[in-house]
Amino acid sequence: MAGQSGDNADPTDSGYYKAKYQSLEDLPSVGPATASKLREIGLKTVESIAMATNAELTAAGLGEETAAKIIEAARKSIAITFVRGDELVELRKQIKRLTTGCPSLDSLLKGGLETQSLTEFYGEFGTGKSQVCHQLCVTVQLPEAQGGLEGGALYIDTENTFRPERIQQMARRFGLDPMEALKKIIFAEAYTSEHQMFLLDNADEVIKENNVRLIIVDSLTSHFRSEYLGWEMLANRQQLLNKHMHKLMRLSRAFNTVAAITNQVMAQPDAFFTKGVVPVGGHIVGHMSHSRIFLRKGRGNIRVAKLTVSPSLPEGEVPIRITEQGIESDEEI
Ligand code: GTP
Ligand code: MG
């Protein structure tokens, strides 16, 4: 494989690529001092160095040449250099789908959420965004034969809505031991947008060590929205959101994980006479989310999930139901 180091690519490995170098110190030109500088800026694994930019490394005090050399070695080690089209097919075979545990939602998504990409759930309050995230934390633990990824989850919660009891309820439904299921979920509450970014910037080691195959940011935008008010702060906010989403994207690629984010909606600014709502975050969030699912309320506990953006699937909508069991299919809209 072009740019690939020998026989290191093992499709059964939980990561996207199996790195030739295991730890930072294994990389050429990285001694203990450089390794500690890299760890300080949150780059603790070879995978994350491969996804880093020269500017990130020079900002941490490394010389231009050393930075370039280290990144190149890391990239070669995990095979992200040039690949031929047929090799790309092989790499894309490593993309997996994670079941939502809800047949109608899975049928909308042709099997579930893809690894190596960002899936956004957006909608008004109470439409089930966090409930879907809880359920994914359980289904990710299931065997692949049942649509799971046999891994753990990382849950970054910005609104203090993560409920371990709810996970336990859902775990029982899927035949998992409730306590064991909780042990496979790494939870972090983000207090500010800066803290939220810090958590993700420092997540690589946690992801690797815990075989995390699902990263959730619930909600992506709430802190940014409440902290950056007014037009004069908008450019700054969008720049930070962009950086944050890039980081999420890079983690999702490097570790072959599903990344799910939730997002609120706001009234469409230019639609005076319609009841239109649009997701928060504008073009940045829109362009970075590969798939977008809009959730809206139906009667009672019914919700409607609509696939509004997908790289390969047609638009469509399905009814779902929020019950004691979690998210289930429903026949009526
Ligand atoms: P915001 O975060 O406020 O924007 O909303 P959200 O879209 O994340 O909503 P969430 O996923 O929290 O969904 C809340 C809905 O799920 C409410 O209608 C609850 O009634 C329902 N719900 C939450 N927990 C349970 C439960 O244990 N049993 C049942 N039957 N319903 C539940
Ligand atoms: Mg929520």
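^ magnesium ion complex. The domain at 17-78 is CATH 1.10.150.20 (DNA polymerase; domain 1). Residues 169 and 325 are 7 Å apart (CA to CA).
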